[in-house]
């Protein structure tokens, strides 16, 4: 498998650095991901008694040269600001910090080990059935946790049951890669940043429904229910999931995804309406609801089959070396 020479060079630097002065503290394990401007490296903190430290995995993110250092500084600043948010990868402090004295520092963050959304899409292609609706609805909640985010990024698959009970059936999704984040200059005047992110949320859901990771698809006109009531024709970038396609798909979920990816910004839903509608779907779409409507794969909406599916496609596999989500995620660490 091809490895970027710049990534290999940074990896070797970190390995030598640990071996030369920190061999009793840390061990370099390997390259996780390489992007346009940096590399993510998997490392291990060793167990020590004085001071007392437990073993743990962590990720070191390094940029390739000084010209890209501003991106790393911005990402560190944003992650510190969002520290504690359950849907955001967490920045870590290590002591001693081997990178403090270097001209180019590093971002130290938690290792989320279950792969990416792209991985589970790749694995679902091997199945003869689609994602259950109750799984899709709960995945929909995760990107809703970052409505003011300005640019698309990657999602990692986190813990199966993090504290709080929100993810009773599916693991949490954690957002990474903030080096390319953009800020809305007038967040209290316009909701343009929110509307852009609503589109990206819808695009992610379209990928999970269709198992097609193409970043851009040709739009089409679909007549659908809209916020405020009534129906009208809307041009949407998710026309591919309109009826009669995907007969197992919940019509309410189908409608939300197509609205989120409306071509015209003014046709996209508000964040509050989207959240309320999504919560209503989550609470009312029970296994019995789907059984009564005779959907093709209604039996998969039960808790047991969902738990079996998640265990298989998330925890049964290691990381998948697939091509990933096309084109749109070429910025930063991919």
From TrEMBL:
Domain Protein kinase: 26-279
Gene3D superfamilies listed in its UniProt record: Transferase(Phosphotransferase) domain 1 (1.10.510.10)
SUPFAM superfamilies tied to this protein: Protein kinase-like (PK-like)
Molecular functions (GO terms): ATP binding; protein kinase activity
InterPro entries (alphabetical): Kinase-like_dom_sf, Prot_kinase_dom
Domain of life, per lineage: Eukaryota
The protein's name: Protein kinase domain-containing protein
């Amino acid at each position: 498998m091809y490895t970027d020479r710049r990534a290999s060079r940074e990896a070797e630097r970190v390995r030598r650095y640990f071996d030369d002065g920190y061999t009793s503290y840390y061990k370099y394990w390997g390259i996780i991901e390489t992007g346009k401007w940096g590399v993510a490296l998997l490392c291990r903190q060793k167990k020590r008694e004085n001071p007392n430290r437990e073993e743990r995995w962590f990720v070191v993110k390094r940029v390739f040269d000084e010209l890209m250092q501003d991106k790393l500084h911005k990402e560190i600043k944003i992650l510190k600001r969002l520290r504690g948010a359950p849907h955001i990868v967490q920045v870590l402090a290590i002591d001693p910090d081997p990178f403090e004295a270097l001209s180019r520092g590093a971002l130290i963050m938690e290792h989320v080990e279950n792969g990416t959304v792209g991985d589970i899409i790749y694995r679902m292609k091997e199945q003869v059935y689609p994602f259950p609706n109750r799984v899709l609805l709960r995945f929909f909640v995760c990107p809703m946790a970052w409505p003011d985010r300005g640019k698309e990024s990657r999602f990692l698959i986190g813990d199966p049951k993090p504290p709080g009970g929100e993810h009773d059936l599916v693991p949490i999704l954690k957002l990474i890669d903030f080096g390319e984040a953009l800020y809305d200059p007038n967040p209290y005047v316009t909701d343009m940043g929110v509307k852009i992110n609503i589109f990206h949320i819808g695009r992610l859901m379209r990928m999970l429904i269709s198992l097609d990771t193409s970043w851009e698809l040709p739009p089409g006109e679909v007549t659908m229910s809209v916020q405020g009531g009534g129906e009208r024709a809307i041009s949407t970038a998710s026309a591919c999931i309109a009826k009669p396609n995907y007969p197992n798909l919940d019509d309410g979920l189908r409608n939300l995804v197509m609205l989120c990816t409306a071509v015209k910004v003014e046709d996209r839903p508000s964040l509050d309406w989207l959240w309320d509608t999504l919560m209503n779907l989550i609470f009312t779409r029970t296994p019995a609801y789907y059984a009564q409507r005779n959907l093709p794969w209604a039996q998969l909406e039960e808790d047991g089959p969902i738990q079996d599916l998640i265990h298989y496609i998330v925890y049964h596999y290691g990381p998948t070396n697939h091509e990933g989500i096309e084109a749109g995620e070429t910025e930063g660490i991919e």
